[in-house]
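Homework help board

Subject: predicted structure for assignment chain

Our instructor gave us this sequence and asked us to write out the predicted structure in token form, then describe one feature. I got the tokens but I'm not sure how to describe them. Can anyone check?
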Amino acid sequence: MKFTIFGAGAIGGVLASRLADAGHDVHLIARGANLKALRAEGLLVRSRVFGERRHKLPASADPAEVGPSDYVILAMKAGSLPGAARDVASLRRADTTFVSLQNGMPWWYFHGIDGDEQPIEAVDPGGTVTRNIPPEQCLGAIAYISSSMPTPGVVEHTSGARLPIGEPSGKRTRRCLQLAAALRSAGIKAPVRANIRHELWVKLMGNAAFNPLSALTRTTLSELTASPHGVRVIASIMDEVREVAAAAGVQIALSNERRIAGARAVGSHKTSMLQDLERGRQHELDALLGAVIELADRWHVAVPAIRAVDGATRVAFEHGTRR
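My token output:
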């Protein structure tokens, strides 16, 4: 099968390496220094799970050079998606499947839910993403892969190789089962979920707390979850996310304690938002907190802790790495 990894960064790089090792036809969309490094030296993935691999894969900044693909894995950050969405036309045919890996709320969330097709402006401003990437051609996916890109073309994969996937409809479709099989052949655990929206809320419940708080406090997951003060704020944010999810019709089954324990087990890992702050990169606050606040306003749910942390983290990014 032909895969295009749109956004060959930390997570996209891990998936590209694994799929290439499994014999699939893999193409990379990248830009700037990363593209230059990929073309010159190839993609180097140093993985504590799979070992070290270097691949010379086709890489381009122009999707038109890649052409239609069976699967397009959208691995860029949520904030980059509206701009990138306009470039996907040359990758798409009627049977192309887009796989969304963005943290936070996806633009397709309300697709197929009776009576509620209203877009989430925080992640789909003006409906740009929906117009260019039809929700009916999308699968949801949640990445449990801890990795980073310390230098262009180089990915450090520290832990995790799980990618739950699912149709918004909950059906076990051919395209979903084929993707799961391809990922499993690449060593990635890819359970097919009948309720991918629940899985999204479980991941978001953690990310909405861990990512901004780690950026504000400059702490790793182990440091943040070892602090009683940190745990209290984490629990407040999780409780508010749980209330918004309930307003959306989803009861999050996982307890705060288990979600926190899972993060603690990851160890001294810097969240992606802390890495972004330290390197002066774009944040993901709109998808992680902005979308939750938007939905809270829509359904009249009070989220004071989320509002406070969202505002404080935006100030931190405005001032970059200055202390």
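Reply (TA_rk): Your tokens look well-formed. For the description, you could write something like this. The chain has a mean pLDDT of 95. That's the kind of observation they're looking for.
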